[in-house]
Amino acid sequence: MKKIRSLSGMLDLFNDSDASNSAEHIFRVEKKLKNIFNTYNYNEIRTPALEETDLFKRSVGDVSDIVNKEIYTFLDRNGKSISLRPEGTAGVIRSIIEKKLDSSSNKFWYIGPMWRYERPQKGRFRQFTQAGIEILGHEEGNSEYEMLSLICNIIDKLSINNSIIKINHLGDPDTKKAYCDSLVTYLSSYKNELNETELERLDKNPLKILDSKSENTQKILKDAPSLKDFLPKENIDLLNSLKDTFSDFCKIEIDYSLVRGLDYYSGFVFEALSNELGAQDAFLGGGRYDVLSQKLGGKNLPAIGMAIGVERLASISSIPKTQDKIVSFITITSKLEPKAFKIAHHLRSLNKKINLDVNLANGSLKSKLRRANKINASHALIIGDDEITNECILIKYLDDELKEQELVKFDEAYEIYKLL
After folding, report:
1. How far apart are CA 331 and CA 48, in angstroms?
2. I need a surface site. Which of 169, 229, 232, 332 has the fewest CB within 10 A?
3. pLDDT tens digits for 373-398?
4. Same domain (yes/no): 299, 351
5. What does the angle CA 208 – CA 211 – CA 216 come to, to the nearest 5 degrees?
6. Could you give the angle at which helices 410-419 and 337-350 cross, rounded to 10 degrees?
């Protein structure tokens, strides 16, 4: 019978010392991110993996690659078009509006799976994990500094090397329109040299052409109007202030050609990149999206957020592995297992810092001790018929070969376990 295999670009992640995948490191990165978010006193939010397709068309943009090429969309049994979420922000704002929280300020974090149909490559998969931050209800100003602080903290705590944070400002709607008009006028002379996608963007979203991967298009853009010439002084001052404030902690560059791929971004935008990732070198990015709530039927809600590709981040981070203390609980007869499990349950209540591994196999003592050494257990607690009869536990010190094993009464064993 043919074996069923996983779909392309969708990983199985399991934490096993023998596993060849990077699951253990990914889990450590997720844990570290959650710790960082909590130190900033952000609240966790969880939204559904499935949403109405229209949510993403109205937020991400119906001319974006995500909606046109990458989104997983299908009809449910009632004929409604629904999609697996390709990003997290739209669902958060939809939830905020639905719960009538769009007139208050909130700070949220999330971690969860997202889906995009694209070519799998280093750190990029069709099902991937994305972590995010959303700061809602605050006008441009203080929240930008908080966001840069978070990014620098992530780079530091996860030991990301060869990284740079690029920042830019897209201006207010009038500034953005004036610049786009000038850009369209300039690029209209080169229509014959633009590809089909860029020609479509020229009509609907000209800023996206700045993000073109075509070498020829980038050569054309070298003489294009600069966004900097259209930005008000206060926008440029904000960029300079952010750079000056955090350059002692991270490498920061003002890049006036930086744009974000989603339609809802406006104002301040940013990306963090590492050359260790190759051509697709961004591992987090985001910006301000003050108009998204209103586009989705909510109230005016100034907001800024960022998204982090967890697998991409994990592939370049170097968090040292911290070994939890493990104690192996071994029974050497099957007749007393109910009593043994009761003892193990009591031990777990005495010291919650220890991972107590109860060996469930029906092997020999020798084989069970081999497993205890394999999982790096510091001690083995061994119980057989005689130990139960005499209310004793045999303690074997696996991390100290010179220390003799000892047979101790239950109460004494419990006191020793408390102090391990």
Report:
1. 44
2. 229
3. 988 999 999 998 888 889 999 999 99
4. no
5. 110
6. 40
Provide the whole-model pTM: 0.86
By residue range, what is the domain housing residue 349? 326-419
List C-alpha distances in Å: 23 to 27, 175, 307, 313: 6, 45, 20, 13
Q: Specify whether the CB–CB gap between 125 and 11 falls below 8 A.
A: yes
pLDDT band of residue 281 (cuts 50, 70, 90) is confident
Residues 157 and 48 in one domain: yes
Number of neighbouring beta carbons within 10 Å of residue 58: 19
Q: Which two tokens stand for residue 211?
A: 């993000």
The strands making up 326-331's β-sheet, listed across from edge to edge, are 355-358, 326-331, 379-383, 392-397, 406-409
Rounded CA gap, 87 and 10, in Å? 16
Burial string for 173-191 (b: 16+ CB within 10 Å, else e) reads eebbeebbebbeeebeebe
**Alpha carbon distance 372, 258 (integer Å):** 53
- Asked if residue 365 is part of any domain, the answer here is yes
Mean pLDDT value across residues 128-156:
96
Q: Mark whether 235 and 361 lie in a shared domain.
A: no
Q: Quick one: 312 and 414 in the same domain?
A: no
- Are 29 and 310 within 8 A, CB to CB? yes
Residue-wise burial string across 21-37, b where 16 or more C-beta atoms lie within 10 A, e elsewhere: ebbbbbebbbebbeebb
User: What local confidence, expressed as pLDDT, does residue 16 receive?
Assistant: 64
Consecutive H or E run containing 82: strand 81-84
